[in-house]
Amino acid sequence: MMSPGPEAAQAGAVDRLACVLADGMGGHAGGAIASRMVCETFLDAVGKADGRSPERLQTALDAANAAISEHVAGNPALRGMGSTLIGVLFGPEGAEWVSVGDSPLYLYRNGEIALLNEDHSLAPALDQLAAEGRLSAAEARSDPRRHLLRSAVTGEELDLVDLSRQPLPLHAGDCVVLASDGIQTLDTEEIARIIGAYLDDGPDAVAEALVRTVLEARDSHQDNITVLAVVPIEQASQA
């Protein structure tokens, strides 16, 4: 993990697991406060919430957003702080999630990797312009607006929220990865290769290998990197 910035946490019973990752913004102090507050509030709220998983996830997101609003109201100097958020509930039915911002949620399966959640940065819009021929691919990749967020947990109304509506069944050999956007230093093929190489060693080994590879790239524009990996119980003794 590179600091300041992302936080990650997990909690749960034997057959249930709640994970959350938050990548803070708003300067050194503001970003660290926001990401920690989002993680702590989300886990507390999702554990207390009633109803089906989508309602619980939405309730926990709303609680985290309200916590940021209240903190900023009492500390005006922190106005502008906020965070991305990925919250995932794992259970016998599979994985369900809520996300805001550009922190990616990946599923690794059978040597391939897929992005599960929406990207709320400007990157998809720029890539679409490139696909339409209105920008070159190189211009889209290097555009300084690429990482600007269209939605984040800032205490204001949430413009975009990605909420899964049904569980995603998981199987032995799968790996779910929550990450801050710093992981995008690696292309998806490299992420898949690393997960496949370390999966038999467990989720901690997968997360550590991904972070290590990002840091070894020594990208001068490297963003903060935090990774949380989860595998089905049949594949490892811990998640």
CATH architecture call? 4-Layer Sandwich
Structural class: alpha+beta
Write down how many β-strands occur, each being a DSSP E stretch of 2 or more residues: 10
> Which stretches are low in confidence, meaning pLDDT under 50 for 5 or more residues running?
235-239
Largest β-sheet summary: 6 strands, antiparallel
| CATH hierarchy, class | Alpha Beta
Strand content: 15-25%
Shape: globular
Number of domain units = 1
Task: Outline the fold blueprint.
Elements: E1 6-11, E2 17-25, H1 27-48, H2 53-74, E3 82-83, E4 85-91, E5 94-100, E6 105-109, E7 112-115, H3 123-131, H4 137-142, E8 162-163, E9 175-179, H5 188-198, H6 203-217, E10 227-230
Antiparallel strand pairs: 1-2, 2-3, 2-4, 4-5, 5-8, 6-7, 6-9, 9-10
Helix pairs in contact: 1-2, 5-6
In short:
This protein is α+β, with helices and mostly antiparallel strands and about 240 residues long. The protein has one domain: PPM-type phosphatase domain (Phosphatase 2c, domain 1), CATH 3.60.40. It is built from 6 helices and 10 strands; from the N terminus they run ββααβββββααββααβ.
Task: Describe the overall structure.
The chain is α+β, with helices and mostly antiparallel strands and 239 residues long. The chain has one domain (6-230): PPM-type phosphatase domain (Phosphatase 2c, domain 1). It contains six helices and ten strands. It has helices at residues 27-48, 53-74, 123-131, 137-142, 188-198, 203-217; strands spanning 6-11, 17-25, 82-83, 85-91, 94-100, 105-109, 112-115, 162-163, 175-179, 227-230. A hairpin with a 5-residue loop joins strand 1 (6-11) and strand 2. Helix 1 (27-48) packs antiparallel against helix 2 (53-74) and helix 5 packs across helix 6 (203-217).
